Amino acid sequence: MSNLKIAKQLPLKVLVKRILKRVFSKQQIAYSKIEIRRTSSTYKLNSLLLINDLDCSVENEVVAHYLKHEFNLLGSGWVSRNSKKEVELGPLHFPFKQQLINQISNAYQFIDWQLDVRSGFRFDVKKQFDDQLIDQTKNVDIKNCWELGRLQHFPQMALAAHNSSNKAVIILEFRNQSLDFIISNPIGMGVQWACAMDVGIRVSNWLVALDLFCQIDENNILDENFTVLFTDYIHKNVEFIMVHLEEKEGAAGNHYLFNLLGVLFATSYLSEKEESLNWRKFAEDEMQKEFFKQFFSDGGNFEGSTTYHCLSAEAILYGTALMLRNDKSLSKEYIQLLGNAFHFIKDVLKPNGEMPQFGDNDSGRLFTFSSTHQNKNGASEKASLLNYQFLLNGFSGLFKDGGTTSLEHNIIQQLSKNKKIENKRSEKENGFQLRNSKHQLHQPKTTVIEFDLNIDLDKISLFSYDQFGVYGFKSSEFYLAISAISNKKMHHSWGHVHNDKLSFDLQVHDRDLVRDPGTYTYSAFPDKRNEFRGVKAHNGIVLEGVEQNKFIGLFYLEREVTCNVLELKGLSITLQANYYGVEHVREFTILENKLVVTDYCNKPFTVNINKFEIYSPNYGSY
């Protein structure tokens, strides 16, 4: 039944393509029966960055963990990922290991790239990526393996090594870990190839790290033998991505953007040949098309999640920088949409730089160059995974009026060869109309949230993104954001949408008074997955036994709810949500010492503000 419901939500063109794909399926590559890796390549690698012009302040403590193979990923805490046994490969892939094993330092301990460190389940590298069997009794989360395999710690190591007295040790560790990954992960085998998105992220991070390391490698640790092997492996990664593009028969999401971005990074670093130029042109053309498909004209992303907006915008940002570098022409519509996507982030961020967690949050990023950031006072502090100031900094490196300088600013500036575009933003008109519906509804229930200190009402301004479905009011000391995410033109699955309509985040004087609980998990704990995306987890109202959208599996919703703005008057806004015969109207009124929330509904309900006691600030933890 769930498959039938999913099929009904698919666009007809997509459904037809998927049926035809099954009927006329192509023969798949049998990776278990071939050895694709080689130790020679005709490609050379370019350099795109200058490490001397980058701020290389990375915490030594963090790099010390990486040197010991300890990683803090998706709420795991700092955990050793060392393998407790020798690398086990299939008979066809074992000889390649023997060929390279002597290039790794004798004392080096291999990393277990196949282990989900939280559940203890190990994927099988002797089986190819699409033939993995998961033990359903162990709460396995495949993302724990993928996150490690993105190799996002490598650029941090490179930046730290630049001014380190331990430079040679860090470079050697990069070489050893790189060889470890190449030896331990034959192309197409095991968990690290199960998602082409992660291959694209890995390629991007690996290339940036090697670029930076080579500029400070005074002892030729990364010698020609290593770089030739590395280059060939990158080339094979791109071949893999091109065969396994997550285009989804025209119904792609953020995964496809990172497929394309990985190809763009690789073909910008690889020397120009007919093959690489064809790949680059394909990726550039597809990224531009997908940008217009995956982002509404107001700048909001179509997956219905504020943090997924940031993730996809990061892919577009770096893709745009590389396209500018390669002299790709960008239309004025593209540039304007990019400006709108940037302003969405700038407007919706809280005064402390954090993003409200409307919809899913899997803590995904392309790069994590640093684990710290500058706070509003200019002091360095550990960065929250919800803080997206780094992304605004990156955009500033692309725009002509980008005033700030930061690591991300300078990296984007270097990747684009300092080619700038206008920071354009389309003008918006709000046409809100009051509907006469309150007289049909039950007795209102009023919630008053008082502030510790008064706020200056004159400094508060409205932000609204009608197509995405988020509205709010903001100043340096006050923040209110309201979810009305219900556009039927979103991604057909609504897979990253939560039942959070008319729920809200409230922050006053940098203190969260009301906040969305986050996501916590996907497939590892199905009940928790649905609990965190259900109405009882959010700051709306609850009608017993009624969800705003019924769940279809873990990554589909029934697309039932609709939302409208009924009235906007000064610092008061009234919105309406309708679903399964329920009509809910909620009015927000901002006063200098409190927020007044008034709820009306045509059926008996309870107010659910701050009732859900669990908070997950990032994927995998609460």
Distance between the termini: 33 Å
Q: Roughly what is the average pLDDT, rounded to an integer?
A: 93
Helix percent reads: 25-40%
For the biggest sheet, the summary is:
5 strands, antiparallel
Percent of residues in beta strands: 5-15%
Strand order of the largest sheet: 5-15-14-13-12
Shape: globular
Report on the architecture of this protein.
It is a single chain. 34% of the residues lie in helices and 13% in strands. It has helices at 2-9, 12-23, 60-67, 94-100, 143-149, 153-162, 167-184, 196-216, 224-243, 254-269, 274-294, 306-325, 332-348, 389-396, 407-415, 526-533; strands at residues 70-71, 79-80, 372-374, 380-382, 445-450, 461-465, 470-474, 478-483, 504-508, 511-514, 541-542, 562-569, 572-579, 582-591, 594-601, 606-607. Strands 5-15-14-13-12 form a five-stranded antiparallel beta sheet, with no helix packed on it. A hairpin with a 4-residue loop joins strand 6 (461-465) and strand 7. It is globular.
Topology (elements, then pairings):
Layout: H1 2-9, H2 12-23, H3 60-67, E1 70-71, E2 79-80, H4 94-100, H5 143-149, H6 153-162, H7 167-184, H8 196-216, H9 224-243, H10 254-269, H11 274-294, H12 306-325, H13 332-348, E3 372-374, E4 380-382, H14 389-396, H15 407-415, E5 445-450, E6 461-465, E7 470-474, E8 478-483, E9 504-508, E10 511-514, H16 526-533, E11 541-542, E12 562-569, E13 572-579, E14 582-591, E15 594-601, E16 606-607
Antiparallel strand pairs: 1-2, 3-4, 5-15, 6-7, 7-8, 8-9, 9-10, 11-16, 12-13, 13-14, 14-15
Helix pairs in contact: 6-7, 6-8, 8-9, 8-10, 9-10, 10-11, 10-12, 12-13, 14-15
